[in-house]
Amino acid sequence: MTIIPVSPADVPARPWLAADAGRWATISVPLWARPLGPALLLFGSVVAAMVFSPACPACSVTAPCTTDWLDAVGTMAFLPHLLWLFLLPELAVVSAPLLLLWMTEPSTWQGGAGEKIADTVVVVALCWGWAAMATRLRTRRKARSAVHDAAGGITASAPAPGGPRVRQGLIRWVAGALACTVAAVLIAGIVLDDRADDRKAAAATAQDARVVAVDNDDYTLTVRLPDGTRHRFDVQGSYRNGSTVRVLVHGDWMRLASEPYGDPTDRQVVALLCAALGLTLLGWGLLAHRRDAALRRGPVPVLRVLTRRNHGRTEIFAADDTDALHPVLNYQPHDGQWTSLRQGLLYGAPCGGAALVLASATEAGQWLVEVNISAIRRGAAADSYARTAEREAAPSIVTEAQVQQALAAMAPASGPVRRQADAATRAVAALTLLISGAVVALMVASRWWTLILWVPLLCSGAVACLQVISWRITADAFGLRIRRMWHGHRVPWADVTGVVFTGKNELTISCRTGIDDVRVGRVAVPRLDRLLRRPTVGERAAVEISAMVLEPGLRPTDTV
């Protein structure tokens, strides 16, 4: 933080009253304009279009398969667009029309019925995303206008906020520049190699060779030259055994006349991925620089507020909310540990992606300046953030009251009691696994090395899904029979001391001293349970087993 010699009386500012703060809080992005929906639809339709697209083109001397930069750039542009839907709506509203323009290319619609349907959904998703981002930006403008109205036109120059955001912007600029440089080097290398091949081809002699082997899995073609020798080429197109192809020969150098530049897809994909990442980082840094510069360039709206630190985040309250009951907004600051309620001056117009400066008064009469380094959340997010932090920090969310209710309501079990994920939860987990498998198959079939980019996400998602599908706990007269993803356990009742169900939907059987606890792992899909507004099966299992531990009469009398 930076200490500034400012007194509240030195800055003419209106208080941000609860009525004005309430009006600002009601200006929110509608549910349909959230980025998750159009992003999921776009991702699924693009993957489907790639699956249904023709695998290999027919290459010939009259229609050679050259390096298609337009198609490659258009296809790879969907990746940064997906990122921009979440991070940079200012760029997403520009990229969406460009992608729609690329989709009007006639060759895009020459596939089968499956590809045409997928391409139609791609167009729908792009239009939805563009409308959602335009609505998101319009909501930001309304929020800024509401703050200007609350400030009554009073503006002031914001104090210098320090360097954390500046350092963040510099890191983004440097990383983006490096990624773009790598992309430029790779693209220049591909173009220079193509020009060198053209010079050799101009001095080469043409020979007709017979195709003797075609490997569509490895994309290789073996031909027999007129002198009887054989040569294998890496190819992009489709060929038939026994057909004749034209080969250009210049000393030890040779290539197919139907594929002038070989297959530079690997380098092309890496180059375009680097370019997409670089442009995203540069755009992110540029917009962050513009927002920070707006605070330093001239007067900005200033409001008197109350503020405090809660669970590592700064909360902003209306000036007349002296009991700190309703936080208006919250964000993550760059430093500071104070927790008491203070007076403050808020510089800037809070909205999505905005930069804010907060000058807060200390007990010693000094004013400290801080700047937000995270996105701004609405007031309700502060409470949910605190509840989430407390829930994840707590060892168990199964309360004594829940166990006592179960003790009163449960009847002695006549047979073994089994608890596992219900059909809906297992269906969602299985569908997620199938979709992930289809994505993996597509990557392996096209270019296996691209799978490396997705390995961490795919592995963690697959393990979580398998845990949800495979777990089962069976209670019988002997104890608990626990089946996990890879193996099972049997724990007698004498060793069980309780069940821990955490806020991360993980279940653990606690055992007496000297016996290792048995971790069942993830047992539910929390978003599905919240959508259906029901307690999770893991929570029910924890409550019932805890009741059986406390009251042996509720345990089953039969053994599996």
TrEMBL record:
Keyword Transmembrane helix: yes
Keyword Transmembrane: yes
Domain of life: Bacteria
UniProt keyword terms in alphabetical order: Membrane, Transmembrane, Transmembrane helix
Transmembrane segments: 39-61, 82-104, 116-135, 170-192, 269-287, 427-445, 451-475
Protein name: PH domain-containing protein
Organism from which the protein derives: Streptacidiphilus jeojiensis
